[in-house]
Amino acid sequence: METERGLGIGAVLRGPVERTVGVPENLVAIRRKATPDDMATRERTRQLEKSAFGFCLKRIMERGMQMKLVRVEYQFDSSKAIFYFTADGRVDFRDLVKDLAHTFHTRIEMRQIGVRDESKMIGGIGICGRELCCSSFLREFQPVSVKMAKEQNLALNPSKISGQCGRLLCCLDYEYETYCCLKKNFPKCGKRVRTPSAAGVIDKINILTGTITLRLDDNKQITIRRDEILSDSAADALPAPAPPTAAPPPEARREQRERRPHQPPPSSLISHPPLEKRQESKAAVAAAPPVVEAGGAEAQDDQKKQEGRRRNRHRKHGHRNEQGDKPDTGAKTPKTPGA
């Protein structure tokens, strides 16, 4: 049959089935049924792969190259040999390729792969007791994170959640969405809830059994079911230790002062001077001269002087005021026409 790397030999797992829908896109074209000569050629290529693997591993150790040889794969017609290896960084293998090409007289290809691809090629048994998923049915690797293990309440022990490749188990992704959907029906850890008999804080949640571990106020732990929770708030629950009261914000204090009616301060808060000082202040006020408005006394003296000058002027010239002893104020009477 035709493969990505050229001609190859495969084995039939199930009989042919006619399909009109759901046909996969990566179907390969089958050339013909393998003959005894094809099986003999396959056996020769396997022997070449073993000899090439040993020779390449020996050269790597002699040169002290920082790389790990994983597998050697020959094409069916022995026209090319592919050497798969893993390394932490880039490796200069030019001299190694020259040695391999001079020895086996074929095209040499060096291909660097990851640790997951290494486990897929080598194979093995997982911690579950079954064959590795990557080497049996898994064709593409999905990204796996520690968050998936936390959502499933698994112990974050590297030896328990890591596979043969040293990375996180691929099976952590299988049930992640199911756990996320089931957790929506449960309150979160650390939340205070109330039951008919007690109230406390949620410590653990077991989604598979549907139970919740509740930590009471006296640090005792009890196991309850989801339907036993009356409410997610413990306002009506047993009295819990009151937390320290925090001061209200400045805006709230300002509103309280505006709403509160004005009250005079108590007499105990008003400071009065002693009796002796009060008597001295009263005596000083009584002995003080009368306060005259600014400019009042000077205006009266000027007015008296002017009146005295007018009176003396009338006496000097012999004029008398017809109105008696009253001084002339200098006011002129309007003359009548024809007088």
Model description:
This protein is of the alpha+beta class and 339 residues long. Among the domains are: 2-9 and 27-113, GMP Synthetase, Chain A, domain 3; 142-182, no CATH class; 185-228, SH3 type barrels, CATH 2.30.30. Helices cover 33% and strands 14% of the residues. It has 10 helices and 9 strands. The chain has helices at residues 36-63, 94-104, 115-122, 133-136, 146-151, 158-161, 176-183, 250-259, 275-287, 296-316, and strands spanning 2-3, 6-7, 68-74, 80-86, 107-112, 192-194, 199-206, 211-216, 221-225. The protein has a 4-stranded antiparallel β-sheet with strand order 6-7-8-9, with no helix packed on it. Helix 1 (36-63) packs antiparallel against helix 2 (94-104). The longest helix is centred in the first third of the chain and has 28 residues, at 36-63. The termini are far apart.
- What's the alpha carbon Rg, rounded to whole Å? 55 Å
The CATH architecture of the domain at 2-9 and 27-113 can be given as 2-Layer Sandwich
* Proportion of beta-strand residues: 5-15%
Order of helices and strands: EEHEEHEHHHHHEEEEHHH
Tally of individual helices? 10
Features of this protein?
4-stranded antiparallel beta sheet, 339 residues, alpha+beta, GMP Synthetase, Chain A, domain 3, 10 helices
Which secondary structure elements does this structure contain, and how are they paired or packed?
Elements: E1 2-3, E2 6-7, H1 36-63, E3 68-74, E4 80-86, H2 94-104, E5 107-112, H3 115-122, H4 133-136, H5 146-151, H6 158-161, H7 176-183, E6 192-194, E7 199-206, E8 211-216, E9 221-225, H8 250-259, H9 275-287, H10 296-316
Parallel strand pairs: 4-5
Antiparallel strand pairs: 1-2, 3-4, 6-7, 7-8, 8-9
Helix pairs in contact: 1-2
